[in-house]
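Please fill in the sequence for the structure shown.

STRUCTURE ENCODING:
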């Protein structure tokens, strides 16, 4: 049973509930279990039952008959499961959980040898489900805390730590899981939980007083009051929440520590923000960063100011954005931003980057100079605009951003595109020469990423470099027009057999080998004919040694852009992560280099590109950003020769115009965003160790592992937890022999039947491969 359990602000009780829910899941078409049996041979979990019964009203306990505490003997529990008691009813679809202290799963599986008083529960194993570990054993407290199938915490294994853990269980159960991660838990950590954390307890009480008091008996509540009086000069019972809010505003003494704790993990104490929102500071000079109402007012002011930016001329709009960022940037560090209450302050960060970059259009006295400027820095303007669109989550924020981008980004796009068109029209031969085709290379796999615009490639470069890969980002020009039928052949080695054609049709060249229009499949067939290894989208294969390298395709940016318009911005991160994973997988699979290429970029303007009217009797088009000329071209429209036949004239809308109304996303025209395309060459930073477990075989308590590896010094180990060296159940990790074989002996018989993991380690001790197994399995 593998379960994804809380890694954030959830508690151990939340994790147990999630794990139990997973145990109750069944495949479609299978009847749901009638009950979940929870066996606990040593009654370890019993101190937690009162708290669990609050969280799980369907939890019933084997014990003395006390229905008000949901406790009773076996026959009563059977009646609960069979829903035969009119005074104990469970809602339809809610499955009872039956906790059985001092009963092990082996008791129930013993059949006729099962104690007589437990025998009515035996058949529930088959009509119901049992909450247990992957290896079939009961969930102990230690197992649940440390298992990778549960919380995967790092717990010291000495007896003192185990005893402290059990003492602290009632308090530990409500502790946020996030606060227990990232360190080894020892006896002192659990003891500290028992003596209490005054700042945490005070925040918990402020956040939800009723829930906090429900976890306290009389003595603990009085202790809490005493600590508050002593450390904070405050009595929660006499002074109340409003006074607590006032003291938190005052920034004095120990209350500063309370505020710091709140800022560390504000999501753990959602009610604190409401307390502060309902409290007025007594000191007019109170820190504004602590006042959620102040932050709310600032957001409202900023919303109004951003609305006014939409009506300003371009230069003034850029200047005003920078002034607003100067006024509101500090709020991005306030705790309210982490709680999602400062979306516009956060939105100002990419908008300020955009305003600085978009203040002037792209410059350059020649086509080459302008292209170089865009490939070096200009694309960062597009990146800032896409970041802003991705940041705007709420509908109202997106609508507001549309107006701001119209004042700051759109004019920059328009002026830059017109300058690009002017220079390109002067030197059409230079443009065509720069639209070079992609050639194959030995040991290099080419990834064709559809619609990979330059700013998206910049993101990809950043991610790949953080993974330790070497990346060289260069550029090419897409051919005219920058539509897929014309541009994709250039981005593939098959362009070498593409020929000029008098039939412009949908602007597709013909393949010389077949004399037929190129298509995605025909391009792949031609590359295969040339000896290039053509891989499916997610295929990873070891290079065969062909001098022509490989080819694969990936990415949905273009199709998503056409479908989603401005919504594409929110898909870019996922697309880039997927591309990075694909590059890394190919390099790990044995390719020396991976080259990422594309066919064209695109323009994206929320609300739509400006509509440009073009008389239909003069042209033929099915594209928003290009048309085939059929007669005299109206004045003011840029004209360029088609890449595959210079006698065919392509008409482009001036600037960033569109022949169709309402087009938020389009390509096919002549602009830096559409025509300057990225070309990335990616190599491994260092030769990585590759090792794979081929087979695991057991003979008694000895495990024999077969391994393939490309490097010496690889070790094999057998662990209960893959990432924890101290969980090894063999004397020591062993070097993999030249034959690829290794033998590991488990000396302690108590591990027989346990779920374990065979791991392979590089020289630095990092896990490079792993395989689950069961100790002693045949």
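FILLED IN BY: designer on duty
SEQUENCE:
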């Amino acid at each position: 049973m593998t379960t994804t359990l809380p890694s954030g602000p959830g508690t151990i009780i939340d994790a147990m509930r999630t794990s139990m829910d997973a145990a109750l899941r069944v495949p479609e078409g299978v009847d749901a279990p009638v009950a979940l049996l929870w066996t606990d041979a040593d009654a370890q979990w019993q101190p937690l039952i009162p708290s669990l019964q609050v969280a799980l009203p369907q939890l019933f306990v084997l014990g003395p008959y006390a229905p008000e505490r949901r406790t009773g003997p076996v026959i009563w529990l059977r009646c609960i499961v069979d829903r035969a008691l009119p005074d104990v009813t469970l809602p339809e679809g809610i499955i009872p959980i039956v906790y059985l202290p001092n009963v092990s799963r082996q008791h129930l599986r013993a059949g006729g040898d099962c104690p007589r008083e437990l025998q009515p529960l035996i058949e529930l194993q088959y009509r119901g489900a049992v909450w247990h570990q992957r290896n079939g054993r009961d969930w102990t407290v230690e197992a649940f805390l440390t298992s990778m199938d549960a919380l995967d915490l790092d717990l010291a294994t000495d007896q003192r730590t185990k005893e402290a853990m059990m003492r602290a269980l009632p308090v530990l159960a409500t502790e946020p899981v996030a606060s227990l991660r990232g360190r080894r838990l020892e006896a002192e950590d659990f003891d500290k939980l028992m003596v209490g954390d005054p700042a945490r307890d005070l925040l918990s009480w402020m956040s939800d007083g009723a829930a906090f008091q429900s976890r306290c008996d009389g003595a603990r509540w009085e202790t809490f009051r005493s600590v508050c009086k002593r450390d904070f000069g405050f009595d929660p019972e006499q002074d109340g929440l409003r006074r607590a809010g006032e003291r938190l505003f005052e920034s004095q003494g120990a209350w500063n520590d309370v505020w710091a704790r709140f800022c560390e993990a504000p999501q753990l104490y959602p009610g604190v923000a409401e307390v502060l929102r309902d409290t007025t500071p007594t000191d007019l000079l109170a820190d504004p960063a602590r006042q959620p109402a102040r932050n709310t007012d600032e957001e409202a002011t900023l919303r109004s100011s951003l609305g006014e930016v939409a009506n300003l001329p371009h230069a003034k709009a850029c200047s005003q954005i920078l002034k607003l960022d100067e006024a509101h940037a500090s709020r991005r560090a306030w705790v309210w931003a982490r709680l999602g209450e400062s979306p516009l302050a956060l939105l100002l960060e990419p908008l300020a980057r955009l305003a600085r970059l978009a203040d002037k259009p792209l410059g350059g006295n020649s086509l080459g100079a302008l292209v170089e400027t865009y490939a070096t820095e200009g694309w960062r303007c597009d990146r800032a605009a896409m970041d802003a669109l991705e940041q705007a989550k709420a509908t109202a924020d997106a609508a507001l951003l549309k107006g701001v981008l119209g004042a700051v980004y759109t004019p920059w796009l328009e002026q830059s595109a017109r300058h690009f068109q002017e220079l390109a029209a002067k030197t059409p031969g230079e443009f065509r020469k720069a639209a070079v085709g992609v050639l194959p290379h030995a040991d290099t796999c080419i990834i064709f990423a559809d619609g990979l615009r330059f700013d998206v490639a910049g993101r990809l470069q950043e991610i790949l470099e953080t993974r330790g890969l070497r990346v060289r980002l260069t550029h090419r020009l897409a051919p005219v027009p920058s539509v897929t039928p014309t541009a994709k052949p250039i981005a593939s080695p098959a362009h070498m057999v593409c020929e000029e054609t008098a039939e412009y049709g949908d602007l597709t060249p013909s393949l010389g080998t077949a004399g037929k229009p190129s298509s995605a499949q025909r391009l792949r067939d031609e590359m295969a004919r040339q000896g290039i290894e053509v891989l499916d989208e997610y295929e990873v294969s070891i290079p065969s040694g062909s001098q022509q390298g490989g080819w694969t395709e990936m990415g949905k940016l273009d199709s998503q852009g056409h479908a989603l318009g401005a919504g594409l911005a929110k898909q870019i991160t996922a697309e880039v992560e997927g591309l990075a994973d694909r590059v890394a997988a190919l390099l790990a699979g044995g390719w020396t280099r991976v080259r990422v290429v594309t066919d064209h970029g695109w323009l994206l303007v929320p609300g739509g590109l400006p509509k440009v009217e073009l008389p239909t009797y003069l042209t033929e088009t099915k594209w928003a950003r290009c048309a085939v000329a059929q007669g005299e071209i109206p004045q003011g429209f840029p004209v360029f020769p088609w890449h595959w036949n210079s006698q065919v004239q392509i008409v482009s809308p001036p600037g960033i115009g569109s022949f169709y109304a309402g087009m938020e996303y389009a390509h096919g025209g002549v602009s830096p965003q559409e025509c300057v395309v990225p070309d990335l060459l990616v190599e491994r930073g260092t030769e990585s160790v590759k090792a794979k477990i081929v087979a695991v075989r057991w003979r008694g308590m000895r495990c024999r592992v077969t391994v393939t590896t490309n490097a010496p010094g690889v070790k094999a180990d057998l662990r209960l937890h893959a990432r924890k060296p101290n969980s090894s159940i063999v004397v020591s990790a062993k070097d993999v022999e030249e034959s690829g074989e290794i033998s590991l002996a488990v000396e302690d018989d108590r591990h027989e039947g346990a779920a374990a993991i065979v791991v392979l380690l590089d020289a630095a001790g990092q896990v490079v491969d792993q395989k689950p197994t069961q100790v002693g399995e045949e």
